[in-house]
Design a protein that fits this description.
By secondary structure, the protein is an alpha+beta fold. Helices cover 36% and strands 46% of the residues. The protein has one domain: Nuclear Transport Factor 2, Chain: A. A hairpin with a 2-residue loop joins strand 1 and strand 2.
């Protein structure tokens, strides 16, 4: 738990610094593309479809939540069995280009979901890191906190 707390503090501190260093020239087309890609991931999760995660995450993908840290393989496996999602919505997007091959997307997610037999938090603060590899944008890290 202490390692997770340290990681969250480091990521949030880095994100704050990144926000302060951005210029006013945000690539709006890239921003729209990344938001659309992320929404597709939520739809795949809602539909218990692991295909999106197989095709749109890096081999070293990491997911961080209050339940712990999960690998790509663990997320792919749990996508088809762990949760029943009735609805979700995403809002308050903030987009930061970290460099030409890495971006950070943050937003608020609301969800109506049951995972592992228990009600999932209704509101989440989310941070997602996408990286460009082989000409394709892939999700490298997903982090959520109630």
């Amino acid at each position: 738990m202490n390692n997770l707390l340290v990681l969250v503090v480091v990521l949030l501190t880095s994100a704050g610094a990144a926000y302060g260093q951005t210029t006013s020239r945000v690539d709006k087309a890239l921003e729209a593309k990344i938001i659309a890609l992320d929404k597709q991931g939520w739809e795949a999760w809602k539909n218990n479809d692991a295909t999106w995660f197989k095709e749109n995450t890096t081999a070293d993908f990491v997911s961080i939540s209050s339940d712990g840290i999960s690998s790509r393989a663990e997320v792919i496996k749990s996508t088809t069995t762990e949760c029943k999602v009735s609805a979700f919505s995403l809002a308050n997007f903030r987009f930061v280009e970290l460099d030409k091959n890495a971006v950070l997307l943050t937003y608020t997610a609301t969800q109506d979901a049951v995972c592992g037999g228990k009600k999932a938090p209704a509101t989440l603060q989310v941070a997602v890191n996408y990286v460009k590899r082989g000409g394709k944008w892939l999700e490298a890290m997903y982090m959520q906190a109630p």
